[in-house]
Amino acid sequence: MSEIKISSASFADTKPHYAILDGLRGVAALMVIWYHVFEGFATSPIDQRFNHGYLAVDFFFILSGFVVGYAYDDRWKKMTVKDFFKRRLIRLHPMIIMGVLLGVITFFIQGSEKWDGTPVPTSLVMLAMLATLFLIPAAPGSGIEVRGNGEMYPLNGPLWSLFFEYIGNILYALFLRRLSTKALRMLVGLSAIGLASFAIGNFSGYGHLGVGWSMADYNLVGGFLRLLFAFSVGLLMSRNFKPIKIRGAFWICSLAIIAFLSVPHIGGSEAPWMNGIYDSLCTIIIFPILVYLGASGKTSEKGSSKISKFLGDISYPLYVVHYPFMYLFYAWLWGGDEKITFTQAWPIALFLFFGNILLAYVCLKLYDEPIRKLLTKRFLLTKNSKDPYPFK
Could you say which DSSP state residue 81 is in? Predict the structure, then answer.
């Protein structure tokens, strides 16, 4: 396949940019940090106070389907599958590499041992690093599953969603983009039924959709259902999108995201299906509506425009770099003889929150953007070429 030169003027500047969607992605990424902070004080998903942050991943997948469809659906006569994959790799993989390196460093700082105290040889850590760099998942109990709690990517747990993100992009390039709108609607409907059945039927064990991060039990099934519905509904929305007039969309949608992701577990161990209904409603109905409203709105105020841009810029780096430091936070919380409460730990939690925001910004400006610019120039042949709608 031959290379295709695509200038930024012909490829990127002809379509409006959905700035509010960038900002909402950033708001959801911030909520993920607090979700992970409160994981350190919970004994299970049921008693975690700040409970539904895991649904941010479903929101991300819907955004991904929407913006990828918006950016690429009408470009395939001028672009090959190879070009598409190169663009997505350039957009996503540099920060994955940074996330892996941070994961290795913090693992060594933590003592290079599993959660049960078993020492891990450096050779296995290096092997885990190599596998994670290529997003090869670790099976529970395997040598490269170096933390011993079943994560697909034990050096940086949240990379599991990037594994599914890549699968979504592959499915889009090879299959989903070719579906008629009617066929895509059928896929969305069927996957919605499957997703709701998974949540309400309690296949996760807690009546929730916080699955996909492991290869154990029904995690892979749940992860694929989350991706298939969310990415497909986002793609469907991009095909049929007709904006409506709405004022204050950024603030309305931001507050909604904060509220819906903060709700405690519903139903408890006695009625987990109630939480399954909540998760299903959020993912299948509420989040698509928020994406629709966000895409319809405009950032007319300077304040909201700057905030939205900043949050959008740091959202992907923040999501990738924050969790290695959560491992250190958990080791501190759980490592002593006495239980540390949130009342005692909140200054450290705030430091983690703002420190990760700063780190994400530094990584963005000094690493991610320069590397992507260099790779774009080298592999896409145009000096100013860039991803037409850089998701995450």
Answer: H
**In whole angstroms, what is the distance from residue 147 CA to residue 149 CA?**
6
What beta strand segments (E) does the chain contain? none
Residue 320 tokens read as 């990738």
With beta carbons less than 8 A apart as the criterion, state whether 235 and 172 touch: yes
Whole-number Å distance between alpha carbons of 130 and 165? 20
17: tokens are 């940019």
Q: CA 9 to CA 29: how far, in whole Å?
A: 30
- Contact indicator for 61, 230 with CB cutoff of 8 Å: yes
pTM exceeds 0.85, yes or no: yes
The tokens of 69 are what? 């469809």
Which is nearest to 29 in space by CA: 125, 136, 161, 148?
161
Give the number of other Cβ atoms within 10 Å of residue 289's Cβ: 12
119 forms beta bridges with 113
Closest by Cα among 122, 123, 129 to 154: 129
pLDDT tens readout for residues 109-152:
999 999 999 999 999 999 999 999 999 999 999 999 999 999 99
Q: Closest Cα partner for 384 from 4, 2, 3, 6?
A: 6
Each residue of 159-171: pLDDT tens digit? 999 999 999 999 9
Q: Who's near 289: CB < 8 A, 6+ residues apart?
A: none
Q: Which residues face 214 on adjacent strands?
A: 151
**CA quadruple 111, 112, 115, 120: dihedral positive or negative?**
negative
Q: Mind giving me the DSSP string for 372-385?
A: HHHHHHHHS--TT-
112 neighbors 138 (Cβ within 8 angstroms): no
